[in-house]
Amino acid sequence: MTQRIDKGLIAEQNAKLEANLKEDYQALGNKLSRDGINIDEITAKAEAFQIAVPSWGTGTGGTRFARFPGEGEPRNIWEKLEDSAVINDLSQCTERVSPHFPWDKVDDFSELKQTSDSLGLKWDSINSNTFQDQPGQEHSFKYGSLSNTSAASRDLAIQHNLDCIEYGKALDSKTLTVWVGDGSNHPGQQHFQHAFERYLESMKTIYAGLPADWELHIEHKMFEPAFYSTIIQDWGSNVLAAMELGPQAKSLVDLGHHAPNVNIEMIVSRLIQFKKLGGFHFNDSKYGDDDLDSGSLHPYQQFLIFNELVDAEYRNQAEFGPNYMLDQSHNVTDPIESLMNSAASVQRSYVSALIVDRTKLTEYQTANDALMCSNTLKKAFTTDVSPILEMARLRKGGAIDPIAVYRQSGYRAQAGAERPNTGGNGSGIV
Ligand code: AOS
Ligand code: ZN
Ligand code: ZN
Ligand code: ZN
């Protein structure tokens, strides 16, 4: 079995950086205290921050054109868990893994639960998959799953989601995330209303199968695989479906699933207001559902989203507590490095939003001082909070510099030697 990162190595590498970190942390603490902010309170919140890793994200992604397998890719859910444990060992903010069925093949769920327990990992939302046919599948999803015109195909899709709830119970998850590719490729191909009615009927059966302490998260996406219309194409259809189903149904926001330039932070605010924000899939994009690394292109947008989230947190907004998760496709980087970097990038947005001067912001908003409103946000965004993130990791036993320790550890080369068979492993192309 591939060894996780040696604690001695983490300590040794941290020792080299610790003196400088303490100086930087002190300097930032002094700066923040001038604005009445106690740096240790912010660091404690950074330490409590968690974002889940998608099981498929630990493998190399790909496009419909090609996939270039990486060295030592995990070949199954057990190896994906090992890689997830490494990510959490070093970054200390990714203790949850979000599985995907049936990509993650599991015969014995109690054994899987024991393994995750032994690695210090927990399970986040269960992702169902009715966007492709499985070998030997009796009724196809070619023309949709939960909204298919064929009752037999719909029933299969419903049953798969009910099965996912059972798997989730065994793993002590509390959420099912449903994203479907259902839609059409030609104008007129589908009766929009009837298709949505069929979708809602199917979802009602799934909803009825939810345990009382579970949530059902609905994920919208503008297009792909259907290129003319998609059944849950935006947050409008999403929240309508969630409202129709009931209080346990909420909307999930994947950052890459909107038209370019859409004001995502405002969608987030609306969903918070109506108690319908279920969770996030973080990633970044330039053109569409690119699934680039979180914060790699639009860190300010990510910060503005967290500005809404932190605002809701401080206002103790009712029924607020979204699941945070990464959903990215790593094509040219080591997925472990990308996931560590991205988790820290999202955590950075959270911390930056925590140091926004909300009293001043409210005053400026009330006075319609647009320029100072903007400057108040920019001040927080441009403050380098790296020492807080680094100190949070250090205090939790993680690495001040996760990428450096990971590279030093030789984990990837070792995985390459122990996992010779690369190939299709069900990593996220979508
Ligand atoms: C698809 O584009 C969505 O982002 C899904 O959340 C996800 O990537 C897929 O369900 C992977 O299973
Ligand atoms: Zn997603
Ligand atoms: Zn996507
Ligand atoms: Zn995706």
From TrEMBL:
Q: Which domain of life is it from?
A: Bacteria
Q: Does the keyword Ligase apply?
A: no
Q: Which organism is it from?
A: Paraglaciecola algarum
Protein name as annotated: L-rhamnose catabolism isomerase
- GO terms assigned for molecular function: isomerase activity
Q: Which gene encodes it?
A: rhaI
Q: Which InterPro entries match?
A: L-rhamnose_isomerase, L_rhamnose_iso, Xyl_isomerase-like_sf
Alphabetical keyword list: Isomerase, Manganese, Metal-binding
Entry's PANTHER family?
Answer: L-RHAMNOSE ISOMERASE
